[in-house]
Design goal:
By secondary structure, the protein is of the alpha+beta class. The chain is built from three helices and ten strands; from the N terminus they run E-E-H-H-E-E-E-H-E-E-E-E-E. Strand 3 (about 60-65) and strand 4 (about 70-80) form a beta hairpin. It is globular. Bound molecules: coenzyme A (COA).
Length: about 180
């Protein structure tokens, strides 16, 4: 995909039923439909469209099963106030087609995406999402690092994971997303 982050981590994760790969320019319509179906509103799908245009670097992966795109995940840079040296990504949006949920596709996308971010040199990832889902990937409430979110959200839904050991040590502050997130 033009403008997407490329690098040594560009491996394709393949299992018997599924392939995880970089999104390509040809995938954008399918990714949009998938996000509309999963979120039951076009808001996140339109956010993906916007981020694809303006956010750099961009990690955008799809899960493909039998030639059909059944999952998508996006990571874009976030800023931690007072710590411009800390390289962090934000996870989201992510979506799995309703008929394909609860089969581990989302988990494989998260793991592949975190690994990509790590290989790109990012030290931590933030997520604003389901408190019961993301801890299985190592995410913990950001409040444990004295880090909060620019949005007024319940503390348990804003989480971070370190990709490098102790990367967030002493890094208290507020995480800001790309302005494109503001409308969602
Ligand atoms: C969240 C989502 C991406 C997970 O994808 P998936 O492929 O079904 O995930 P996996 O198969 O890897 O994991 C399934 C687990 O996710 C959990 N899960 C799914 N949606 C959840 C939710 N809203 N809150 C908490 N847990 C959720 C399931 O309970 C299941 O847990 P279990 O394994 O303990 O039973 C998918 O459900 C989805 O697209 N949902 C709609 C869009 C969305 O909410 N995106 C995330 C925004 S933060």
């Amino acid at each position: 995909m033009e403008g997407a982050a490329r690098g040594p981590a560009r491996q394709r994760v393949q299992s018997d039923r599924m392939l995880i790969r970089d999104e390509s320019a040809d995938d954008s319509a399918a990714v949009h439909s998938l996000n509309v179906a999963a979120f039951q509103t076009p808001a996140e799908a339109d956010l993906v469209l916007a981020l694809r245009q303006v956010a750099r670097p961009l990690v955008s992966l799809v899960a493909e099963a039998d030639g059909t795109i059944v999952g998508h995940i996006m990571f874009t840079p976030v800023a931690l106030s007072g710590h411009p040296d800390r390289r962090m990504m934000g996870l989201g949006p992510m979506a799995v087609a309703p008929a394909h949920q609860r089969r581990g596709i989302g988990s494989e996308l998260v793991r592949a995406g975190l690994e990509r971010c790590r290989q790109l040199g990012y030290g931590a990832v933030a997520v604003l999402g389901h408190a019961a889902y993301y801890p299985r990937f190592g995410f913990t409430p950001s409040s444990g690092f004295k880090i909060d979110c620019e949005y007024d959200v319940p503390p348990e839904v804003f989480m971070v994971v370190e990709l490098q050991r102790n990367y967030l040590y002493g890094a208290s502050g507020t995480i800001k997303y790309h302005p494109a997130f503001a409308g969602v």
